[in-house]
Amino acid sequence: MNVSPSQPFQLVYSLLQHEYLGYLFEASAVQLNARGELSLQYQTVSSRNVGEFAAGLDSADFQLVRLIDAIQQDAIAKKFSTKRISPVDFFLKIYDPQKGDKAMQEAIGGYVESHKCQIMPLLLGKRLFVAGNDGVPTAQPVDVLPEPATVRFHFTRNPDNTHYYPSIRYAGQKVDFQQREVSHRDVSQREAFILCDQPAWLFLDNKLYHFEAGVDGKKLRPFLTKKFIVIPKNIEEDYYRKFVSSIITQFDVYAKGFEIRQEAYAPVPLLNLSETKTVVSATNRSKVYASEETPAVEDDSHEEGRVTFNLGFQYGEHAFRFDSFAAAANVSMEKKGDDYIFHKVSRDLRGERETVLMLKNLGLDVKNGRATLGKIGAFDWLQTHHETLRGAGFVIGQNPADPKRYFLGYSSIAVSIREGNDWFDVYATVRFGEFEIPFLKLRSLILARKREFALPNGEIAVIPEAWLTQYSDLLALSEPEGPERLSLRKHHLALVQDLQREQLATATMSRKLEKLRDFEEIESYPIPEGLRGTLRPYQKAGYDWLRFLNQYRFGGCLADDMGLGKTIETLALIQSQYDEEPSGAPALKLPGISFFNPSSKGATLVVMPTSLIYNWQQEAEKFTPGLNILVYTGTYRDKDLAQFDQYDVVLTSYGIVRIDIELLKRYQFHYVILDESQAIKNPSS
User: Fold this and answer.
1) Cα–Cα distance, 365 to 369 (Å, whole number)
2) Do residues 14 and 131 lie in contact, with contact meaning Cβ atoms separated by under 8 Å?
3) HEC string of 559-601?
């Protein structure tokens, strides 16, 4: 009997029972009479004709029709049959009492159950009936209760056994469901049955109940035919530890004969590290998992270990690993003598999830309570976020089974740079927790880009990658001076300023050097009085630049083209140095005796190819006749260093310097000037 979609109708759902598939549903369109009531004119609705009735359906109806179709007899046979066989023959074969396919039966049962679990919540707000034996879909109305019922599980411990049963309440009233199932082929004659297991949906007295906390129907089904379950004394402890603990974890439990302690604590986040180490040999790049500790500093292999972070939470004396699907409470059983105590610890699942989100925002991608990083990245992450983690109350630990114990606290480095006469003095101290270590001890490791070293307590500290990046230039360009100090040449001022600007070091400099922060242009310096001749504009600019370098005690490279007068610019610089105070030239000469006005400045050493010495002599006599010049050359040269104090300028060759280097380096020259300095570009020359 067809229903006209153009006339008032309503889609209803009917409950019926299949011989093999259990309880199923059917969707029907029922024509409404003039009073708006359901008539006896109805039509089955399936995916084939649902479009005809679309005007009277909502999205839930379309989902229900699709799901109901999927578990009808014909659809099941088509899905699970591997041969062309009629649905009737398929079910007779699969469900044959003697020769049936048990595995197939379980697969079909699971498939139907999963679809019913999707159907049940969609029925809320819909009209549901038990179908009549005559096929009428509206034979017996069923009230689909809108609110979930509650379940309490009762355990009574007796001297010889334990009794166990559940109770149900709906809207504050007890629901009598025990021993109510009556085996009857006609669904309409049954008072109680479980319609769906996961989660449970209970049909009772033409009402359909669902439950809070996702009660499994298997926990209710036995009590449709019995009052309680008896647990023998001989399996009591094992039953309590496994089953009773699980029930207490998930549900409200009334206990008689044993104790349930409800415990609530503020959670403390735990981040526990464990290492999986792979070693890549310097000669063999294949990875080998290392089971024994490998020395960090002495070993020349490259460690590529990985570190796993395991997230957990401490509640009082109880620690739990984070689980996205964890219950709202954890239960542990304690047996004291013949008594049982269950500790039910409530968990702050929302707070735990917020902690996971915080870690993800910090760059640690926690999944199922775990996150894995390369070892270098893991310890750098810990160092970077140490203060944030500590502020959030984290306790950082390491797997006790790991053979190598790592330092997991906060490390810091303090670098102080002070201006000296010709150098910057660099002082640096590293702290790993309570241990303070001179930076010089780590210098060779950092320059070699090695990351690990042992602390006095045996723990292995991992040098942060940031230190290797931030301080590698400072360490590479500086030189050790004693056990606690490095020296850095002054021409590396820009490096010092970068460290100071990035707050990687504190720097103490003279006002003169500080002025370079606001430097805009080189000033014009006066021509020295002792200079004979006139500097061309570009020569004056070169001279000013040399004086600028001198003012800040910097070295430099004067690289004008050949023939433009680099020598006179240099002589002008030298003359300016000795114009500032009396030179060491003799003030009075008597036979065999010389008296000098010694200069506080040492002599200036000018080194050049032998062929240029005469030219320098000539240029000095021409432009700076007031400078006292010594030519330090020849096989029979006087090697008495004291004589240098009598001169302003010492001229010599690269060959002589190479021969007399051990002697010359004992004298403190005011300037060392290299002409044709490309001669030293090869360090082995």
Assistant:
1) 10
2) yes
3) CCCCCCCHHHHHHHHHHHHHHCCCCCCEEEEECCEEEECCCCC
Q: What is the mean pLDDT of the chain?
A: 85
The Cα–Cα gap between 523 and 356 comes to 61
Domain boundary among 109, 143, 177: 143
Q: Rounded to 5 degrees, what angle do the CA atoms 118, 120, 122 make? A: 80
- The span from the CA of 85 to the CA of 81, in Å, is 7
Position 331: which residue type? Answer: V
Q: Domain ends where: 188, 222, 257?
A: 257
Residues sharing a CB contact under 8 Å with residue 409, sequence separation 6 or more, in sequence order: 386, 432, 433
Decide: pTM greater than 0.85.
Answer: no
What confidence tens digit (pLDDT) does each residue in 249-268 have?
A: 999 999 999 999 999 999 99
Report the alpha-carbon distance of residue 162 to residue 156 in Å, rounded. Answer: 5
User: From CA 538, how far away is CA 510, in angstroms rounded?
Assistant: 31
pLDDT in tens, 383-437: 999 999 999 999 999 998 888 899 998 888 888 888 776 678 888 888 888 998 8
Which strand (E) or helix (H) includes residue 111? helix 102-122
Are the C-beta atoms of 272 and 309 separated by less than 8 Å?
Answer: yes
Domain CATH number, residue 609: 3.40.50.10810
User: How many distinct structural domains can be found in the chain?
Assistant: 5
Would you state the structure tokens that stand for residue 630, as one six-digit string? 């010594």
- What pLDDT does 585 receive? 42
Cis peptide before 199, with omega less than 30 degrees from 0?
A: yes
Q: What angle do CA 126, 213, 69 make, to 5 degrees?
A: 35
Residue bearing the bigger pLDDT, 430 or 560: 430
